[in-house]
């Protein structure tokens, strides 16, 4: 049975954060219920697609999936499981924002099958949270984390952000101390991007935006601090205690198959990349739902795409596997091109091939563009 990941997009948030350009927005209970009903019907209609697969990861992302009721979560998961293809060992993750879930709700989610939770903290400084337009405080996070633990979640991710306007080295160090003291199993940390059209981008001129050097310093601090505290830096933006890599996200980087459901959800299945446009209304009706195929004209071959994705991981590229899957001799093709980066300490030789160093990861996009 081929393994398969399922992604469920939940396009609802209590309020938009000032930097966010994901497809999500405010909603009422009736809208959420109508969406869940349409989603469940769609999943059931599509089940024949993954006959012969075992679903070994399900990821509820958004948006704010924790706005779903446990019953809605259960109905969606049951639709996925109905054809018997959901592995009993499946990783079932759910994104949650502080102050959007109660202890009782978390217990029910756990009973319904969720076994991993990802909490969006972003910063342990209330001033920074305010600037980002987050709806919660640091104290709200603490309460939500305590409730997650009490509800039985023993696989918790915390999302952080660096490069926040006015964030200092001290304030980021404080955030890292705060989070590591609470010992989540997994930490993701992304650099803030001022996406055009967002409220934060519109105010860019009035903000103290860290420059590239400062952002690189924060990244360096992030990598050093987390590895000193027992987290493996396994992907550019992801850190985990042993045995707690996010299995669903690893599929993306290992070019494994996944099917996404919901407006703006992307899929990679049977060698094709496709997605549903970010429009909830059209998604909810089979008559108007569209599937769009992603441009294949990126100029990248499958081998190059696989290389770009694999190099995001600290395991890097396995040259024997790369040859077996794509017929490309990595050393013959790229050996000369990567040499300056090996000498510069940005790429390292591993047991099975090549990978970026921590420093290299920060500039990986640039290096890969040069190499490819
Ligand atoms: S909670 Fe997440 S998805 Fe929702 S607005 Fe904020 S950043 Fe965007």
Instruction: Report the C-alpha radius of gyration, rounded.
Output: 21 Å
Q: How many domain modules?
A: 2
- Structural class, judged by helices and strands? alpha/beta
Outline = globular
How would you describe this structure to a colleague?
41% of the residues lie in helices and 22% in strands. By secondary structure, the chain is α/β, with parallel strands linked by helices. Strands 7-8-6-5-4-3-2-1-9 form a nine-stranded mixed sheet, with helices on both faces. Strands 10-11-12 form a three-stranded antiparallel sheet, with no helix packed on it. A three-stranded antiparallel sheet has the order 13-15-14. The mean pLDDT is 95. Bound molecules: iron/sulfur cluster (SF4).
Record keyword descriptors for this entry.
372 residues; alpha/beta; TIM Barrel; Arc Repressor Mutant, subunit A
Task: Give the topology.
Elements: E1 2-10, H1 29-46, E2 53-62, H2 70-81, E3 86-96, H3 103-112, E4 116-122, H4 126-132, H5 138-151, E5 156-162, H6 169-182, E6 186-191, H7 199-202, H8 212-228, E7 232-235, E8 238-240, H9 247-253, E9 258-261, E10 266-269, E11 272-275, H10 280-284, E12 292-293, H11 302-310, E13 317-318, H12 319-326, H13 330-343, E14 347-349, E15 353-356, H14 358-362, H15 364-371
Parallel strand pairs: 1-2, 1-9, 2-3, 3-4, 4-5, 5-6
Antiparallel strand pairs: 6-8, 7-8, 10-11, 11-12, 13-15, 14-15
Helix pairs in contact: 1-2, 2-3, 3-5, 6-8
Bound molecules: iron/sulfur cluster.
Iron/sulfur cluster binds at residues 13, 16-17, 20, 22, 24, 62-64, 97, 120.
